[in-house]
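Ticket #4471: complex job returned nothing on first submit. Input attached below:
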Amino acid sequence: MNDLLRILAGPLLWLATFSAVYGLNGVVCGVCAGGTAFGDVSLPRVIFAVAWLVAIGLQLGLVAALHTARLGSRSSFVRVVSRTTGWVGLAASLWTLFPTVVTSSCL
Amino acid sequence: MNALKRHRRLDAIWSSQPGWKGWFSTVNHSDVGRMFLATAFFHFLVGGVLAMLIRAQLATPHSAFAGPEIYNQLFTMHGTIMMFLFAIPTFEGLAIYLLPKMLGTRDLAYPRLTAYGFWCYFFGGAMLLLSLVLGIAPDGGWFMYPPLTGPIYSPGINTDFWLIGITFVEISAICAAVEFTVSILKYRAPGMSLAKMPIFAWYALVTSLMILTGFPPLILGSILLEVERAFGLPFFQAEHGGDSLLWQHLFWLFGHPEVYIIFLPAAGVVSTIIPVMARTTLLGYGWVVAAVVALAFLSFGLWVHHMFATGIPHMGLAFFSAASTLVAVPTGIQIFAWIGTLWKGRPQLHLPMLHILGFFVTFVIGGLTGVMVAVVPFDWQVHDTAFVTAHLHYVLFGGFVFPMLAAIYYWLPLATGRKRFFRLGEVAFALVFFGFHLTFLAMHWVGLMGQRRRIPTYAPEDGWTTINLISSIGGFIMAIGLAIVLLEVVLHMTTRHRVARNPWRSGSLEWAMTLPPPAYNFASLPHVEGRDPLWADEALAVRLARGEGYLGDPPDGQRETLTVDIATGDPDYHVVYPANTRLPIVFSAVTGLFFLSLLLKVYWLTPLAVAGVAAVGWGWVWTLGRREDPGTQDVGRGVRLPSSDSVARSPGWWGSLFLLVANATFFGSLLFGYAFLWTVAPDWPPPALIAPSLFVVAVALAGAAFGVAGIALADRANRRGGAPVSGLGIALLGTLGSAAAFAWLMIGTPDPAGHAYGATLFVLGAYGLFHAALAVLMTCFLIARLRSGFMAPGRAAGLPIVGLWMAYLALVTVPILLAAYLPWVLA
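Support reply: We reran it on our side without changes. The output follows.
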């Protein structure tokens, strides 16, 4: 069961962060759509960008953990597959949450 | 014991009852798999006829072939049948039939559940077909958007048939998903580690996990819409704080993964057949597994791309557009793995390979148009046009039907022990392939010219006449091709033209048996050393028939198998299966009575049906277990294993675990709906909030804690040889307290029919109450088992199962209380 969880962990984390940021988009735009921070940058933009960086950080942490001997699987096959899916999670976080810094925040 | 004597003894143990009565009592996976496939393809036939009627209507402008009311029923039922009654059940049937044979075991984890799932599917499908025959079929489109399908605009019974019939059918999908997940993880041949599993098993495992997490949002949506229609709780009505977009979210949370739930098993078939046809092994097995997992997860991040035209904020659109383009990458990796496999092997153009080539061409085109509609501005242009209809047919027909036709021709010799005599398949393939592309290439074109989907007719001046006629001609050519496939299958089964064992010279275990397979699959279970056991040992089938594997010395009247450790494939424990029984059909009939009472609005019958379900369920579980300690079992090859009745992680525990995964997804979807309405729906915050009740909070939390602690105490006492009765008493007290607290919460909610806030809280309370009642029933069951002598230190499998459900009740209690009282606290 642990090996199965290792394989699913990366994409599962991406799914959680993706859903969280999407939900955050709804909540933040409902509460403080007009606020600003750091001069001209809108407050929602800052919040979303931070959320994106947190998501990337979590994925990086997971990938690093899967590469350690302590948390990696003893099966070479599961090790390869789980690390691959870990990188998939990281790539998916980078790509799918990239709109947080380039598209309009609350339109 | 020689091979013949062993075969006779096993056959006597495993065979179904002779004659037609055997169909109603069989629990054998080969029988149920065949029943599933036959029923699914019957539905395919009905759905195909409906498609022909649609194309007949659209062949000419101003057609009077069918009026708008009938036409609405035709396209709704075509989509519904193809999605829910053909595609998913075909995967279920194929997997039920094949998985135990591929995994080197004798049956799936829960044979009675397999049969129960089939009968739920059969009765649910019959319910929907009956509505079609009576002319009162669902007519709101296969995704049933409210407010069109709500009580105001669809007051008749048509929509209820869909909501109730589909929910009934979904039970079978959830049953099958739990069954497959546990079977693949635990019921494999010894030695078969995760790395040595046949690739189809990986696909089936991922698909099953997707069903467990993808179907509950639809089940929830269907329940909410039916409750709105029947009792006026306004989840989707904007004037009462509801939002029709909530339905779209719940539906597509299911609906987009559904596309991949349909595609992945077909891709598993392709990954299985291509290496055999190319006389080589699959290139990049590990990469393919990783790609399948990635594809499954990414598919859950795409649902909003069906809602690009609903006014969702730009950032949300961009998230889902990005995810929709990304999903092409793992799909591409699989396609390159298949091309690489063909490249490194020596492909032979047998009939299954023809259909796989058809799949390649069609699915890649469908994938490319998928990337096109993933781009928001393009989607805005083609949304709800025939272009989208054409795209989904390219993906689903190309990605599912062609591989399934390949599967039919590949595995028919296995199922029948015969080979093709009349060579009609090649002609059929040509007609299907040509007809399909004629139909749907034209549909892309006419969609780009502006023809909307689901229109009953059009005018000559629209300029779509010729294209629609070409499309209709293509549709009928395709239908002729599929009819020839059906004819050939019938001829195949009626001509006695024996096939040699392993005609394709495959390396996988399903060919390591006599053809057609006996009811027990393997006379003895193999010890697997690699991914292609038959290539490693060509005499394996003979050695297994001689009893040289595990469990080669069958005891009288006992259907047995063994389980393995999930990761390593080391033998784990010994399992005895239940024998033939009519319990599954009776259970599904009683379940059907519950759904029928809702459909016909005979509400006095509903509690009786619920009591009937509880009573039959009680009887179902009661027949399991023993009154004497089984001890360890000799399974052959010098290995002794404990019995499944004596272990903490019994088959029932694993089944409960994965059923709770689906249950948690259902609950998560409900919380999502509540949060969505709070943040998006009009007329929120609600006019009145429910004030926190100290009684409800204290009793609910204490009840949950008592339930968990009581079962834990009982389990510990039982394992130490003591009396678990005090622990069970504490658990019973706790669960009764939980039930009372949730009932009180429901009573205290503001008018559920007045605002979506009260309605949602009422449903959350009902969810808690249902689980508390279930926990009460389970605890009572354990007390009855204790009194009847079923519980002892060596027979403790039941307590951990109930412990799992108690833990779940405790887990959901906290969010329910927070959802109920936190808004008041914050306000």
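Residues 68-103 of chain B form the longest helix (36 residues). Closing as resolved unless it happens again.
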